[in-house]
Structure formats: C-alpha cells, structure tokens
Amino acid sequence: MSGIQNMSAVLDMLCPMHVMISRTGHITHVGATLRKLRPELDWVGARFLEVFALKRPRAVTSIAHLRESVGIKLHLQLRDAPATELKGVAVESGSEDALIVNLSFGISVVDGVRTYDLTHADFAPTDLATEMLYLVEAKSTAMEAWRKLNLRLQGAMIAAEEQAFTDTLTGLKNRRAIDHVIARALERDSQFALMQLDLDFFKRVNDTLGHAAGDHVLQTVARIMVDETRSEDTVARLGGDEFVIVLPDVRDVAALRRIGARMIKRLEVPIPFEGSDCCISASIGTVFFEPGSGADMRRLLDDVDVALYASKRAGRGRQTFYNKELRHKLHLPVHAGPDDDQASVIERPSSG
Fold first, then answer.
1. Could you tell me if residue 351 is inside a domain?
2. What is the CATH number of the domain that holds 80?
3. Is the backbone peptide bond immediately before 270 cis, with ω within 30 degrees of 0?
C-alpha cells in the first residue's frame, strides 16, 4: 500500500468527513460520511470551491487563500440544496502541496443526522457526536414523557376544577361557580339580569314518593331551565330546590317575562316517576343590575331573594321583578339609592 493510500485509509477511520485537495484545488479523496451527504456527486475531480462555499474567513476565495488559512477555523456551506453548514480546519498533507480539510456538523449535528439519516457508524469511534446524539435522544424521550405527563396533569386539574364548580346531581353549575360568574359580571359593570327560582310543592314530592323521585324532579327541572335559556346564560343549582340564572346583556323586561312564564308553565306539567306523577310549580324572583349602580353581589342576592319571597307570598307559580316598593310591602329594610321601577308580578300562567 502506497503512502497516500495508507493515509487515506487512516483518515477514513479517524476523519470520515475529510476532503483531500490537490495543489490545483481538485478533490482527490473524500471520507465515506461526507460522501453520504451528496451520494450523487462525482466527488473525485470536482473543484473544492465549486462544491463548498467558504463563509468565513471571507478572504478565502481561492485555494491559495485556503492554503494561507491552514489551522484557522473555517465556516463552509454546501452550495446545492440542502445548503448544509459545516465547520472545518485545513492542514497540509506534507506531500505534493496537497491539503486536507477535516469537516464536522458542529452544533448542528442533530439536524445533520436527521437530514442525511446518519448513524453512529458514520462518525469516528472517538467522536463525541455519538454521545451527544445519545444525550439528545434521551432528552427528547424525557421531554416527550414530561409533555405527556403535563398534559395528563392539566387534564386532571381541569377535570377537578370543573367538578368543583359542578352540581353532581343535575350537571348544572353550583353555588361556588355562580359566585364567580356574578363577580365577573359585576367587574365588567355591564347590564345583566339575575333570576332565582324555587320549586313549589317539592317537599311534598320528597315526603310522598321519596328522595329518588325528588332527585328525578331536580334533574328534569335542570333540563327544562337549560332548554329555556341561551347558551351564554349560566344556570346553577344553589342546593335543595333553589336555582339561579345569570342572563348577561339582557335589557328587555318582556323577554324575561316570557322566559319566566315558559319555565313555570313547563314545570307545572306533571313529571312521571315509576308510575306516579310528581306535581310541582315554581316561584321566580328577578332583579336587574344597572351599570354604575354600585350594587354588589350581596345586595343583588338579597334583592332577588326579596323578589322570590314576594312571588311565594303572592300565591306561588309567579315571577316578580324587584323594586324597593316590595320591601315596604313586605316590611323589609330598604336600600339607600335611586328609586327603582315599579314591581310587576306576572300572573300565574294557565297549565293547559
């Protein structure tokens, strides 16, 4: 084996991404790994500077300049696509003024491996790139496991939060949730309506037909209330047979009267349960929040409770809109503030 052949064999083992260049700038030998980057290229005989573009040092525009840059770190790029960037260093071979340029991917080794489907066999046995690739792969595996775990934790947190704000019997929002909804509506200081609904004769159902019948009635009531409200409205069960509805951006009293009348009418239809009919009705109190009124959650809930109480006192199966006059009639303390509109009591709709 000649000296040049022997050197080539050594370089192929130690530097699988090297290029041997003649004094005229032609490639005379190329490492196996570098050859894999352009398997269709006829490497031997090609001009080095026609295959590679030297980006730094910028002064290197000829083989003579390259010879003057021996020992200096080179930044190169393959001219054709994909334009892979490489790092390199040139050394003199010691025979016939030839140069050897040893190349590497540098920190872009991961991209290089993916682009050209390289394996550990394409690197020198002592090249730390293989260890780095292992670490990158291990990190990727760990990050993917962490991502999946994080998604599961987020899902569990969302489920737990949803459960904390949901009434388990009816699937409606619960008291904790409605507090948040009202608080947000007050912060926005925009008009909304608050309705409180209490079932009439519900205790009689529990006492005569049992709690299973009562649960069935509550679930049916929940479905009816959702049916009669908009998707942007919030329906909640406070507990027992008490319900609340928050209706944002509602200014039409007539529309609220229609909603209340429809719910009362539907709830007065007997609800079948195991061969028996559960007969109930509903009393409703309604209050408007006016922007700039300064009313807080405690006052709103107190006012709507007064309106509900007025419906109960008036004979049940009714909807009452709150105003201060109700407090005079019911001998309750009156809030300080501007006068409200006159109360209006909706007559009990026929159950036909």
1. no
2. 3.30.450.260
3. no
